[in-house]
Structures are given as structure tokens and as C-alpha cells.
Amino acid sequence: MLLAGAVLMSSGCAVANSAGGDTGRADGRTLRVVLTQEPPTLEPCEASLTGTGVVVRSNITEPLVERDPTSGELNPLLATTWKQTAPRTWTFDIRSGVTFQNGAPFTAKDAAFSIDRAVNSDLACNVEGYVFGNDDLEVEAVNDGRLTVTTEKPDPILPLRLSFVEIVPRTTDTEAKVRVPVGTGPYAVRSWQAGAAISLDRFDGYWGEAPAFARARYVWRSDASVRAAMIDKGEAEIAVALDPMEAEKDTTVAYPNNETTALRLDGREPPLDDIRVRRAIDSAVDRDGIVDALLGGLAEPAGQLVPPGVVGHSDGIEAPRQDVAEARALVREAEADGVPTDRQITLVARNGMFSGVSETAEALQYQMRQIGLNVRVRMADTATHLQYQLRPLPEDVGPVALLIMHGNQAGDAAFTTSQYLLSDGPQSTFGTETLDRRIAEAGALSGHERQQAFAGLLAEQNESVVQYAHLAHMNGLLGLSPSIRYEPDSATGDELRLTEVRPAEGAKH
């Protein structure tokens, strides 16, 4: 996915402490984290981007409410309570006694400003399109301790949406995105050495529980083996996105990272405009083989775009079993009706999307060729892959099967369906009027009815549209030094909360 998929950029590093920034010494007071890439920005309104959120969210800045990634419940943060006070209006009571890292007190006026800046401005924040679409919000600070937010139409999950809006002081620039943010979080930015490292200091004025480590330092290495070596050599306490080959080590831990891989089949061009061909591809995929042989067993075969724990996920939607005979029969049937099944399909995948991505693309190419389709693989850089992923989609490129990785960090299928299943969704190539109507109807529901409606339309996609051949619900692999204790969860890949990291018993800090 665009939001939650990490954008991997090469730093050309060959050894742990080569170019790209020194992590510093193991002093027991500094938490050293090695990422896959330098964050593209630290702008809080871009914190729904994985590369930004992993540093910013809940560390430097905070939202009004916070979703528990395990239970899915919303917990109070900068807002203490919230309720729907009119069909289109929600009212939030603001936490008192909170101070920004610049010394200014936090009030409802700052919350109103932050929402307006992120959602209603011309800054083109990522959170605006992904979380709120084209809808503006009417925001009012009733007084210092109370905020009202009014939507264009009733929105039962507005508090969840607002969990993606990071709160900043009302003195923050509204004409341009900021390089070094100010927030209410437990850490403040000390320095950002471009191309080298980001350093944070513990904010002594933090309203909540103080983090265990006085400092945090982020560096980045594009090579997963280098990141793993930094843990082994005591050069970092946390390393993200390790290769499955490291999974047997005592210094690694696997966790569901809410990412789902899939092939998006562009239904605008033959032969992929024929549902029989799309169904054939879905049947041709050997999900178990890919998971076991290429993903190191660190994934689960998938039959839908959202993983367990997300509203709308259905245990009743099972991953299809490979059936080559059935797939061949569907292709032959389409060919007999004049569908040009010999036309070359380009399978586009992004370099560095996940460990084993190129081998996975080649396996999919082989499996599609097995059933009589003509497929070539194109491994692309991030910029090129985005051209295929987002509207406006490229023209005159022939039929495309795009390997995507979608992460639903919000925990609700509305964020998936609006992007990936609507006929004109930003990351959808086609759809149906029926499915569009069902998506709109599901979005107006809440509770059990919402769950059932989204589960039903995900099943409908598999029956009547088949825009996606789902592959796997992915797991992440985190490297952890024996000197610390941390339990990753499904949010870890998007927001690594430093306050949850503790020294191991007996370690100095």
C-alpha cells in the first residue's frame, strides 16, 4: 500500500558503521534504532506514511485518541472523552495540563488548528486523502477544554479517523510542511543530520509516563543483513524489517504487521478484462508454496485484502487452494471466445517491497505461464511503481498485474475499500456499481452491522469482480538487543512507540 508500505531507498552501505550515520555508543541511556530508510519527512500531517510515522507517531507528536492495535478499542490520549452529540457532530473533551515541547500550553484551539491544517488546507497532506478523502471538516474550539467536529454526512468512525491527525501548536506553519515538528509527545527532536541520523531527547515536560531512555537515535541501512549485524555487534537495540533467514535467532521476534500482498489485475485491458482470466490467475497462485519457500513461513495465505483484527475481515473467506487444471480450463474457455490470452501481461513489482519480492514475482510469472498466459516481469523502483499504483493510471502500457502490499493500520475496512475497491478509488483500476453502492452503505454503519457489511462486500469482490489475487498476510521480523524488552504488535511497523521499550532487568539506563 502507498500509506503503510515502506519506501526502501539504498544507502550503499556494506558494513554496519559505514556511511549513513553512526548509531553512537551503547551507553544504556540512548535507544538506538536502525530503519530501512531515511524518513522522507517528519511533517506530522504525513505521519500516516510508514517511513514518517515510525519516528513521529506517539513519540514526537500525539493524536486526540489512540487505537489499541490488539483490541481495536480507542483509548483517550489528548482527548479524555468523546461522544456523538448530533447526527454529524462529535464533541471531544480536551486533556488539561498538557504542554508542547516549545513550552506553550495545549488547548482545544491547537486541536482545532491541527485538524484544519491537516484536512482542510492546501498542504496536500497524506492523511487528508487516505483517511478523509475529499471531505472537509467543520472544527470549532468551544473553549480551551472542548472541541466539536462536524462532518458533511454522519460518520460513525470519526474518532478513529482523528487518531491519524497528529496535534501541533497553532503557531505551526500553514503555508508549508515543517522539517522539524513540535508536539506533545515524550520525545523532542534534537537534530536531524540529513543522510546520517535523527536524534531525539526525552521531553521532561511530558504529561504522561516518562520513557525509560533519555535519548533515541535513528539511523538507516537499506541492507537487511547489515541491520541484523548491527544487533549482533551491539551497535543498535532495535532493527526493523529483517530477512526471514534471521528468524531462528534469539535476538529476533516475528509479529503480524497488518500488511497484505496481492496481485492487482488491471481490468481495463484484455485479456485481464475477462473475469475468467482473472479467476484463472487467482486459482493458479500457489500461496502455500510462496509462503513456505520464499517468505520463510513468516506469513499466512490470504483470501482478502484485510488481515485478522481489522473490522471487515472474515474468517469465512479462506485463501483459495491452487488448482492448475481449473485455471487452464478457464483460460481455454476465454480463448475459445476470442479473448487474446496470448497477449503479453506485464507483472510489475517494486524492488525492496519485502524480502524475496523478486523471487515471488518470478514464481507468479511461472504459475501464470503454467496455465497458458504470456507474462513478463518488470522490477521497478519506487517512483515507477507508484505510477502504476495510483490514479491517473498509465495509458498504452498493455495489461498489467501489479504486485502490491497494502497495510490497513487504521483497523477498519473502510480505509481499504475506499482506496482499492471503489470503481474510481485512488488505487483501483475498475469496479462495479453494485460494489460501489455496498461500500457506501457499509461506511454508514457501526458495530456488528458494520463488520458484517464489510465482510460481505469483500466476499462479493472475490465473486463478481476479482480485481485482486490475494497472496499473503505478512509478518514483520524485528531485531531486538538482549539489553532491552519490547513486545511488537501489528502497529509496530507504522508507529514504533518508544515509551513501550524498557531496559532488560539489570541493564543500566
Automatic annotation (TrEMBL):
Origin superkingdom: Bacteria
Alphabetical list of Pfam families matching this protein: SBP_bac_5
GO annotation terms (biological process): peptide transport
Keywords tagged on the record: Signal
InterPro entries noted in UniProt: SBP_5, SBP_5_dom
Signal peptide: 1-16
Solute-binding protein family domain boundaries: 73-386
A GO molecular-function annotation: peptide transmembrane transporter activity
Entry annotated with the keyword Signal: yes
Database matches in PANTHER family: D,D-DIPEPTIDE-BINDING PERIPLASMIC PROTEIN DDPA-RELATED, PERIPLASMIC BINDING COMPONENT OF ABC TRANSPORTER
Stated name of the protein: Peptide ABC transporter substrate-binding protein
Species of origin: Streptomyces pactum
